Amino acid sequence: MLSAESHFNHQVPNSRGVLDAKTTGQHGLNRLKRFGAPKGILLTSFNELGLSEKLVASVTALGYTTPTPIQAKAIPLLMEGRDVIGLAQTGTGKTAAFGLPMIEMLMKHAERPANRTTRSLILAPTRELVNQIGENLRAFVKKTPLRINQVVGGASINKQQLQLEKGTDILVATPGRLLDLIARNAISLSKVTHLVLDEADQMLDLGFIHDLRKISKMVPAKRQTLLFSATMPKAIADLAGSYLTDPVKVEVTPPGKAADKVEQYVHFVGGKNDKTDLLKKSLAENPDGRAIVFLRTKHGAEKLYKHLEHVGYKVASIHGNKSQGQRERALKGFKDGEVKVLVATDVAARGIDIPAVTHVFNYDLPEVADAYVHRIGRTARAGRDGIAIAFCAPDETRLLHDIEKLMKIEIPVLSGERPEGLASPTRGSGNRGGRGNGAGNGGRRQGGERGERAHGDRPARGHREGGHREGGRRNGDFRGQRAGEFAPVERDNDLEVTSDFKRTKVEGAKAAGPRKHRGGQGRPARKAGSFAAAGQGRPAGNAGRGRKRG
User: Fold this and answer.
1) Where in the chain are the domains?
2) Identical fold, 68-251 and 262-415
3) Could you write out the three-class secondary structure of 108-148?
4) Sign of CA pseudo-dihedral 514, 516, 520, 522
5) Nearest to residue 243, comparing CAs of 230, 228, 225?
6) End-to-end Cα spacing for the chain
7) Which of residues 9 and 154 earns the better pLDDT score?
8) What span, in angstroms and rounded, lies between the C-alpha atoms of 359 and 386?
9) Cα angle 65-69-72, degrees, rounded to a multiple of 5
10) Sheet harboring 291-295: ordered strands across?
């Protein structure tokens, strides 16, 4: 409800088409209270969204005066108790969109939570995102008695169990660690009234669907459920159909569309050495910038990190082989400005909310086009501008084609030539690739009719052709080991080393086990002195015959 005394600002187009702030008078205030905002006018205060004066004061004290589009659309619906599907890119204020109405409703029913229970549950795919959400929510509830806890893998489960002992108002968790704590009877979900699935598309990509189904059976059927996602594949629609009741869809950015202020460019290169040289050149040309460099694999990320560190860059890396403490120190250094370049894999970079990021480099193009949208969403946050630069090797043209097809743009070329087989996608409205200033459009674009994929059809999301790569074979964690090779790349699951990740079994795939030898008891140990002398052949009784397979 609007207070009768509070006059707030709204924006109206002036004669030049620019939105100017205007203050309502009492008559205009009463009219807005009765009929809402006229078409084309954007309300720009938290007061009219149904939040209490106390919570609005807390938000204003943090420097937030104008709701983002996702906040302006979602908060009133959530205050009415509706289930909501929110489609918005990262950096659009989703945490406040679901967090503020949740806090408001919890404060209205301020009963103390029972021991080992939580009143609301927020699920997110990664440790970094859980920590980011928890940090933001704590800022909103500073002057309230609400208790917020967060639980993730890679941290002490015993310490987390103690934190949950006295009851929780808002629990932020990764699915795997939450199930571990439930198995220990450290937490019950029987009192949950609000359930939030944040970055739902990423949770499905990481194989959390089975964990989500288990958790959904543990929360009461009578609850408010919110699902937020940057993209809307069929799997998300199916998930929403089974989790949400009569949901309202709120969409502020079409799926596959990047933030409006991101300039995108691509370098066509011959190989990894060219990528590294161009990356260092770009970093040298922007010494005051702050950049995130994305690679597909942990091995590749660590190798590039060590090289950049060796040549003198202030660099850090985050990926699945890093401990929780190492990740937190790297992110803190990057946030504080001590680190200028952060080398990361997709999963590890989820939840990075640092407005100062000026550049995103796609050193390796992602296997899944949606991941590109998530990557470049790390820049141009909080209304700032940003630049996204991709490096495309000859064996990555199919991946670039998929990205441009998803985004309905043709990314401007900075260097190299667009391959003739790379067809131009159908352009969409309002989603630019770049502004075209400077030398950014120096490359030559070639069109032509769209043909079939040069590399054949893509495998289904989440599965690789040819089954699993087992130990003992050539390392599949690093591309480009042989010239012209398109190595099969498994998703770089940074959560695999923690209890947050449970690898999904592939139907028909056999679990790897010890190699059998004759009686099935493993290879017998050799006795001392049993090796034949140099130059001595096999015993006569076994000469010329291959080893018998047991």
Assistant:
1) 68-251, 262-415
2) yes
3) HCCCCCCCCEEEEEEECCCHHHHHHHHHHHHHHCCCCCCCE
4) negative
5) 225
6) 78
7) 154
8) 6
9) 70
10) 315-318, 341-345, 291-295, 359-362, 386-392, 262-268, 413-415
Burial label, 502 (beta-carbon count in 10 A; 0-12, 13-18, 19+): middle
Cβ-contact 400, 392 below 8 angstroms = yes
Tell the residue number behind the tokens 């807005």, with chain if given. 32
Amino acid 256: pLDDT: 53
> Does position 489 have pLDDT exceeding 70, yes or no?
no
DSSP 188: B
CA dist 214 and 203 (Å) reads: 14
pLDDT reported for residue 513: 52
3 pLDDT band (50/70/90 cuts)?
Answer: very low
Query: Phi/psi at 188 (nearest 5 deg)?
Result: -120, 140
The answer to whether the CB of 360 falls within 8 A of the CB of 386 is: yes
Q: Could you count the other beta carbons within 10 Å of the beta carbon of residue 355?
A: 15
> How many CB atoms are closer than 10 A to CB 356?
14
Cβ-Cβ contacts under 8 Å for 327 (sequence gap 6 or more): 127, 128, 318, 348
Homologous superfamily, domain 262-415? P-loop containing nucleotide triphosphate hydrolases (3.40.50.300)
Reference 427, options 408, 443, 413; nearest CA is 408
- State which of 8-12, 302-306, 542-546 shows the largest mean pLDDT: 302-306
The pLDDT of residue 368: 85
The three-state DSSP-derived secondary structure of 226-251 is EEEECCCCHHHHHHHHHHCCCCEEEE
The single residue listed with the structure tokens 């489960």 is 157
Sign of CA dihedral 324, 326, 327, 333: positive
CATH topology for 68-251 is Rossmann fold (3.40.50)
Q: Is 391 helix (H, G, I), strand (E, B) or coil?
A: strand
> Angle 175-183/209-218 helices, nearest 10 degrees?
50
Judge residue 416's burial from the number of C-beta atoms within 10 Å of its C-beta, 0-12 exposed, 13-18 middle, 19 or more buried.
middle
For residue 439, the Cα-to-chain-centroid distance in whole angstroms is: 31
- Please list the residues that pair with 293 across neighbouring strands: 343, 361
**Of 82, 113, 78, nearest to 99 (Cα)?**
78
Look up residue 266 and give its two tokens. 């691509």
